[in-house]
Amino acid sequence: MEPNSPFTPEHELFRKTVRDFAEKDLLPHKEKWEQERGFPKEVFKKAGDLGILGVCFPEEVGGSAGDWWFKVVFCEEIIRCKMAGLAMDLMVQADISTPIISYLGTEEQKREFLIPALKGDKIAALGITEPGCGSDVANITTRAETQGDDYVISGAKTYITNGGRADFITLAVRTGGPGYQGISLVTFPTDTKGFAVGKKLEKLGNHSSDTALLFFENCRIPRRYVIGEENMGFVYIMKNFQGERLVAAVTSIAGSELTLGETVRYCQERKAFGKRIIDYQVWQHKFAELATQIEAGKRLNYHAVSLFQAGIECSKEVSMAKLFACDLAQRVAYDCLQAHGGAGYMEEYDLARFARDIRLMTIGGGSSEIMKEIIVKKMKWTR
Ligand SMILES: Cc1cc2nc3c(=O)[nH]c(=O)nc-3n(C[C@H](O)[C@H](O)[C@H](O)COP(=O)(O)OP(=O)(O)OC[C@H]3O[C@@H](n4cnc5c(N)ncnc54)[C@H](O)[C@@H]3O)c2cc1C
User: Alpha helices, DSSP H only, in the chain?
Assistant: First the structure.
């Protein structure tokens, strides 16, 4: 183990659990689940049983109270299933839809939504993006009218991961006036009357993931399903984004590292003009550059994770980590595909899928442009 490694023997044990799960339980089904545009619900259950979903949650809700380095381990290993879509669905379940319920939810919300989600018995989604508004979260229009002890919700959400089969949604709704101060988060059970899944959306990549357009028509839920305080939802969403963005950054670097390794191995075997591709200096230099950038990205990620883990305000570092890692992964995909030649364009190689799937990373969970907006606001020279 390298000096100052954040990983303990417990983390390494967990690494083995996730790696085995990815390579033995998931990877063999890659072709089928990608073609079928989905995977069985039992995958959530198996992940729950292995303690993968709850690893960073408190013991009272069925978790194992692990630190954030367990989450890093999860992201670094789950990508070995070679289905970024499936990995994303698990991350939405455990890292994106549910942490806010753990921090701020009532006992009832934890019992009804969080605990079954961490066991893999219920599927969770996060509903923020709308047909008319994505990056500009402060302007969502899905409305929750107060009627006595209830909210009556009407509107639409789109691009929602796990949306087609979620049992509940951590849902952003407008409970107050315009702008960021009028937004609340609620736990929304999808068996509520008036809720409908519009259609499962076809995508460029992440084919094994379920992505849906959702409609809410006069859906009545109890007001006690609000998460934390009413009209504080925007603040909670921004807090929640930090974990989501770190997950995206770590996953992008891990995927890049795996892809580069596989590409180097391919180039050690493939010959052109009597020489192995790897023997051409142009490729040696390209791989040296990518390896250097991947290492830099990993260090930036680990720095941001250390701050996040210590509870230090680190939205600048998290945004930098996501920006750097997700942009870098695009270059890795492009260069590694190029190094494979025509083989890189063929479905039988993992590269084609990686190149398709990784394209999402500079868009979802806050685009690269939005990361730059956050970074620039935090830079002292702008003051
Ligand atoms: C596969 C997939 C899964 C997703 N899963 C979920 C989910 O589970 N839950 C959920 O709520 N959402 C989800 N999303 C939505 C995702 O978070 C949004 O797509 C993302 O936030 C961008 O919003 P948008 O698509 O509306 O783009 P827009 O906001 O319309 O932006 C369009 C372009 O303009 C740029 N832009 C926007 N504002 C600025 C600015 N101020 N300065 C410069 N450029 C700017 C953007 O960076 C982007 O390049 C998912 C999306 C995809 C594709």
Answer: 9-20, 30-35, 42-49, 68-78, 84-91, 99-104, 107-109, 115-119, 233-269, 281-309, 315-340, 350-358, 368-378
Q: What is the rounded average pLDDT for all residues in the chain?
A: 97
Mean pLDDT of 137-154: 98
Name all residues whose Cβ lies below 6 A of ligand 1.
92, 125-129, 134-135, 159-161, 203, 206, 211, 360, 363-365, 367, 369-370, 373
Q: Do residues 174 and 182 touch, judged by C-beta distance below 8 A?
A: yes
Catalytic residue among 34, 76, 77, 244: 244
Instruction: Tell me if the domain spanning 125-231 has CATH number 2.40.70.10.
Output: no
Query: Cα separation of 373 and 238, whole Å?
Result: 14
User: How would CATH label the architecture of 9-123?
Assistant: Orthogonal Bundle (1.10)
Quick: pLDDT tens for 236-280: 999 999 999 999 999 999 999 999 999 999 999 999 999 999 999
Cα separations (Å) of 381 from 312, 322, 374, 375, 377?
Answer: 22, 22, 14, 11, 9
Topology of domain 234-382, per CATH? Butyryl-CoA Dehydrogenase, subunit A; domain 3 (1.20.140)
Instruction: Reduce the DSSP state of residue 225 to 3 states and report it.
Output: helix
Nearest CA to ligand 1 atom 37: 135
Q: What single string gives the DSSP state of each residue in 147-203? A: ETTEEEEEEEEEEEETTTT-SEEEEEEE-SSSSGGGEEEEEEETTSTTEEEEEEPP-
Residue spans of the domains in the chain: they are 9-123, 125-231, 234-382
